[in-house]
Design a protein that fits this description.
Largest sheet: 2 strands, antiparallel
Number of helices: 16
Order of helices and strands: HHHHHHHHHHEEHHHHHH
Radius of gyration: 29 Å
Number of strands: 2
Strand content: under 5%
Strand order of the largest sheet: 1-2
Helix content: over 70%
Low-confidence stretches: 1-14
Mean pLDDT: 85
Length: about 450
């Protein structure tokens, strides 16, 4: 039986597929982080778990996170978008038609009505049927279905008032952001509390799962005694922090767009409001995702069962946070700078900023932009190959760091912490035994002693 061999030179579809995957991952923070999380955290951390109880606990954690990661953008958010445009923005009358996709407009173009109208025209031309629309059209072929965004219909819902349309779109976008931000943060950050309860019931122990194979039950539960006394209070604290953070973040992202204040701070926030966009209306952008992960990490540390688990989570989350939201940018920028200077590629963005930091870590072009420039004849094809190589090299370095270096170091730390408590208990037992043996007996005690 012969095995078919793939010749990359004779099979351009394979090459195109590779670059399409690279481009899609590079353009979506959530998708690229999901790949790093799967192969840099999920699989290796399960392998390096200290015992089956810890392995099951981590498996539940990863299963929940991946369910959230896929459920939120592909099912929950499209549904919330439609609800928001229909009932909060009051801009659509038919729940299923494509007019709800006007919510995809970036905050960058909601600063005034002129920008908004120009961008809506562009979005309308690009709008296509998604999986839900195609399914609806097949199920109800006789229903009137308009694929493109009907701008006239949107304006009619505001009596032709463009400013009113702008404000309604901002209101709808803000509601989607607030609902998704709150629910995602609460779910992700509170899950450790639920996971701890499941572990307690399934294992019959209340301590940190990673330690359960390292000492007896008495020592492990004593190390988690403080958590058991305060876990309800910790839960209430986390909910309060999450609600306050959601309100503050939503105000920072959207309030400046409708504010009449023209101060420098308000204008600065307005110009940066695009950082709170959702790519394609479903992928949370880097800044809000970073805030959600940061708040969720706080929840993890609040629900840690002892100081060792707090250190474990602090190390994992700090390194993971740095890797997810900065590591790839730093590595890509560094490798790109070297490539442009040594090999003559043109992957850096042109910038007037000539600071030392910008020279070492310059802003770089996205894979999608490089492919466009190649198609336009501005760049040679080698730039695409190098850009894809840099992207995947970054991913592999991040996954190796998260998947091997971090769990190896943490497992040693946990073992050392438990051994200290075990040795301390042994010393106390020896000391009490010596005291009992060497304690002098008084004569009257000896005389009054009654044999059993």
């Amino acid at each position: 039986m012969q095995i078919a061999q793939i010749n990359l030179k004779q099979n351009p579809s394979f090459k195109n597929g590779f670059y399409n995957v690279t481009r899609e991952l590079d353009s979506s923070v959530m998708l690229s982080r999901a790949v790093v999380d799967m192969f840099g955290c999920c699989i290796p951390w399960l392998i390096f778990a200290n015992n089956n109880t810890e392995r099951k606990e981590k498996a539940r954690k990863f299963s929940f996170e991946y369910t959230m990661a896929w459920l939120s953008p592909f099912i929950t958010l499209p549904f919330i978008n439609r609800l928001s445009m229909r009932y909060i923005g009051k801009l659509t009358k038919n729940f299923w038609l494509n007019n709800h996709k006007a919510i995809h407009i970036s905050n960058e173009y909601l600063k005034n009505t002129n920008l908004m109208m120009k961008e809506l025209e562009k979005i309308s031309k690009k709008t296509t049927r998604g999986p839900i629309e195609k399914l609806f059209n097949k199920c109800f072929p006789n229903k009137k279905y308009e694929q493109k965004i009907n701008i006239s219909e949107l304006l009619n819902s505001c009596n032709g008032d463009k400013e009113k349309l702008r404000q309604k779109l901002i209101k709808a976008k803000c509601s989607v952001f607030t609902i998704d931000f709150l629910l995602t943060t609460l779910a992700m950050g509170a899950f450790p509390f639920i996971n701890n309860e499941i572990t307690q019931k399934s294992s019959g122990q209340t301590g940190f799962s990673a330690e359960m194979s390292m000492a007896n039950k008495e020592i492990i539960e004593k190390r988690a005694n403080n958590y058991e006394k305060t876990k309800r209070k910790r839960f209430r604290t986390f909910v309060g922090i999450t609600c306050a953070s959601t309100i503050l973040t939503s105000l920072i992202g959207f309030a400046p767009l409708i504010s009449k204040n023209s101060s420098r701070i308000v204008n600065s926030l307005k110009n940066n409001s695009k950082l709170f966009d959702y790519n394609k209306g479903i992928y949370m952008s880097r800044l809000p995702l970073a805030i959600v992960v940061g708040l969720s990490s706080l929840g993890f540390i609040l629900f840690a069962r002892n100081r060792t688990e707090q250190k474990d989570l602090a190390i994992r989350n700090t390194i993971g946070y740095s890797v997810f939201f900065g590591g790839d940018l730093i590595l890509s920028s560094l490798f790109t700078n070297i490539s442009d200077r040594v090999f003559g590629t043109k992957l850096r963005k042109e910038s007037g900023n000539k600071s030392v930091i910008n020279k070492i870590f310059p802003k770089i072009k996205s894979v999608e932009q490089i492919i466009k420039e190649i198609e336009q004849g501005k760049l040679s094809k080698i730039n695409k190959k190098v850009a894809a190589g840099i992207f995947w090299s970054d991913m592999l370095l991040l996954m190796c760091t998260m998947g091997y270096v971090v769990p190896t170091a943490i497992n040693k730390m946990i073992k050392n912490d438990v051994e200290k408590d075990v040795q301390a208990k042994d010393k106390n037992n020896i000391a009490s035994t010596k005291t009992a043996i060497t304690k002098p007996t008084r004569m009257e005690d000896f005389i009054n002693h009654k044999p059993h």
